[in-house]
Structure formats: C-alpha cells, structure tokens
C-alpha cells in the first residue's frame, strides 16, 4: 500500500515535469505570433497552482523551483525571479489547503485569480525597481486575464481526465499525516 502511494506520487511529479517541458517547448516555437496579437495564458502557472491546490503533497517546493527555474532559463527571463514569485504563491496556497478544501470552486477561482494578479504586479514591481524594460501594463494584464480564464479549463482537465482531486476531509498521506 505504502509503495503504491509513493509510486503514484512520483508518477504525478514526473507527469508535471513532462507537461512543463511540453508547455515550455511549445512556447519557444515560432508559431507566427504577430505584434498586436492577444497574449496566451501562462499554462505552467495555471497547472502549478491548480495541482498545488488539488494535491499539495505531490507538488513539493524543490520540484516547482527546478521546473520554473528551467523555464526561466529557456525563455530567457531573469533567472529565479518568476520562480521565486510563483514558489511563494504556491506556498501561500499550500498553507491554505485546509481552507481551500471547504471552499467551492468559484471561491477557489477568485482566490487563485487574486494571487495571479498579485504575482504579476510583484514581478513588474521588481522590474521597475531595477529599471528593466518591460511590456506595457495592459498587455501584462491581458496575459493574466487569459491565465485566469484558462484556470477552470486546467482544473477541469486535471479533475475529470487525470483524476486529480482535492484531498477529502480526514484524508491522510502515506506517512499517516492529515492532508
């Protein structure tokens, strides 16, 4: 029983890494985006936050940090900045998992949406502090809006197709601790 739970946990972690690799490589492809096009959602952010809410014991901080740091390097962003912000956001969600278990999806969606907006504003604030060039605020907020609208789709796919659900009240992990 214990071995099966640990194996399942590692399968989910490997699935997260593979999905992150596919999403990151797809973002690097020259797919004909032109100036003035609508920005797409940050799928990796949506997946990270949705899976952290659904199964916080599978989404450990070193895994999230390694995947997002690799994404920072591959997408030529300042290494570690977006990683640190997303890691802090996911830890905020992880600390509220007992509360999130009791909430309905609309409340969860609003909380994650507020977190996404806060993470984007923190990212822009750090860029402004060191005078780095950045995209217009409207364009960045369009990207956040696209991510917010994509979050329910990611949750739907994760829940119905992949079977990743929130921990039930009183559910325990492989070590006998409450989730």
TrEMBL record:
Keywords: Membrane, Transmembrane, Transmembrane helix. The keyword Membrane applies. The chain crosses the membrane at residues 109-132, 144-164. This is Rod shape-determining protein MreD. It comes from Falsirhodobacter algicola.
């Amino acid at each position: 029983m214990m071995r099966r739970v640990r194996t399942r946990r590692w399968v989910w972690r490997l699935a997260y890494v593979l999905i992150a690799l596919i999403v990151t490589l797809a973002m690097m492809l020259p797919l004909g985006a032109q100036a003035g096009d609508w920005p797409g959602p940050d799928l990796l952010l949506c997946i990270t936050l949705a899976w952290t809410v659904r199964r916080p014991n599978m989404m450990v901080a070193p895994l999230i940090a390694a995947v997002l740091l690799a994404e920072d390097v591959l997408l030529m962003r300042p290494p570690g900045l977006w990683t640190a912000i997303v890691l802090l956001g996911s830890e905020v969600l992880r600390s509220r998992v007992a509360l999130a278990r009791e909430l309905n999806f609309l409340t969860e969606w609003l909380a994650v949406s507020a977190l996404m907006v806060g993470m984007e504003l923190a990212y822009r604030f750090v860029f402004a502090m060191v005078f780095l060039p950045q995209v217009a605020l409207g364009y960045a907020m369009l990207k956040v809006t696209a991510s917010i609208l994509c979050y329910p789709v990611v949750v739907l796919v994760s829940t119905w197709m992949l079977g990743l659900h929130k921990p039930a009240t009183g559910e325990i992990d492989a070590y006998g601790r409450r989730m």
